[in-house]
DNA sequence: CTAGGGTTAG
């Protein structure tokens, strides 16, 4: 190859199609001794920068330039850095280029603006905008699109309240190095949406990307109505929504829980042939799931021709959010066997399933996976681990992980406080809450649920009122159903039933059946039949099929011996097709869950369990245990009542734990309804006699039995 | 030759 041929090739760099050709060309330049020609080298840099894994050659060549790099060379190196997500380096090169007095041309600005947007350099971004205007590029289509995108990213950044961090985020980009723009320009918080509007309005021509950028930006900043207006205007401008538009718009209807509108978009996507798009698919899966339409969600997932990590995340999160925990776990396993790498969010989505199922072994397994994948430093994941261990009753592990989180945010604080609350350590929860406030973290809606739960489970009425009032007065948070329920529950169980009734009657939002239900439970504990009937009527007024209310009311009647009423209720329930869910307890032994229901004789070890219970009972009675048959709500004689008590599901599960687990280890069981008074007393005796910790999780909390005491302080 | 999208914990 001679010089003329070389020049011809280099004058038409678009002809270089493969990496091999590029390398060959490089060799030719060296062979023909043309290395000192900076125009040849610049062309080669630009050729190299088009290829993905030739970044090192690009950089190397760039630094061998003898004379100051040309605009082509600068653009190539900036483009190469940007495409390798090395945004700081890209911006540094841009600033250097300006330092050489070289004027950028229109097609370099989009990359520069993107880099500013990614590394959140607000100052440089605005400064580049100034120079764009001064270069007369202020109405160039691509540049304007990139500008609008950048300003929307900035807006989101400001909304996150992390504005203080900006000086540290400057990185290598020091504004003073810029030879253009006002280096000390003030950043006006909240003006970024206005900046977008200005850019958008001044655009002489807008394409689909312009509209998509504005629509997506509005959605990401929570301005849904504005986004929908823009969608309509886009149509008026005779531009058809594409797959990008649709996948930005679908999340709006997920947020609005508007499945009708969501389906409309879905239909449009199908008609336009976008329904196999992974992006749209994922947002549709999420939208249907948030609208509790899991069948539709699953169908979209099944019909996707290609599934990436995000489609898997969406379906897993959807299942878990809708309470289909086993299904969620199934998809998680399928994801792993489909060889799709889980992402940090995957764990955050699946963890609540372990927390709800209290499958500690599964949670531990996931924790192991997280540590091996080095995901454990992610705050999201750490918080969900704290939550999971707290909800599985392993408060020590929850605390251990909590203490290892570098900087605690509101979510991790709330998770640990809730952990202590559920496990009956009300005072620890309160001192953590105070510590959180001291460290300047403002408690939010959920934090108050946690602290009120803590007060409720520890019987701290005055503290609860203090927090309940301070929530509105000091933090401007209006109490929601959960807050009312926690306080009503506390008052109810403390016997202050009239006060609870007053509270619920004067709520600023309409009370639901479940709020009244807490009071009904209080009536049952304190045997207040008249009030119970009144409360039950309130419940059936808003929620006629509330089964828990039927069960509680029938228990209230049973306590006061009104068996006729009990029978009437039973018939009523049967007519409504309701069946009382049988009491059931579980214990996990060697990763296997063993379930027991009261009087259940089906377990293969039944004889040994029964024997163990008998031995235990003898020892308990010697220690002073007397069976309390008051709580047996069946119209039977004393002896039968005792037999019924002794075969309660929690006792069977504990006895099975005693005969299978090594002596001294903790026995953990889960029960689907509240543990009864007599079993609570009995388990206290058991923990003392056996000299081991027994942890019982019922449907609302944990009981840690140790040395004859329970963490709930007999208050539950 | 440069620009835009989906999933997340209490």
UniProtKB/TrEMBL annotation:
PPR repeat feature ranges: 207-241, 308-342, 409-443
Gene Ontology molecular function terms on file: RNA binding; zinc ion binding
UniProt keywords, alphabetically: Repeat
Full protein name: DYW domain-containing protein
PROSITE patterns registered for this protein in UniProt: PPR (PS51375)
Organism of provenance: Cannabis sativa
Family: Belongs to the PPR family. PCMP-H subfamily.
Transmembrane residue ranges: none
InterPro entries: DYW_dom, E_motif, PPR_At4g14850-like_plant, PPR_rpt, TPR-like_helical_dom_sf
Domain DYW, residue spans: 624-716
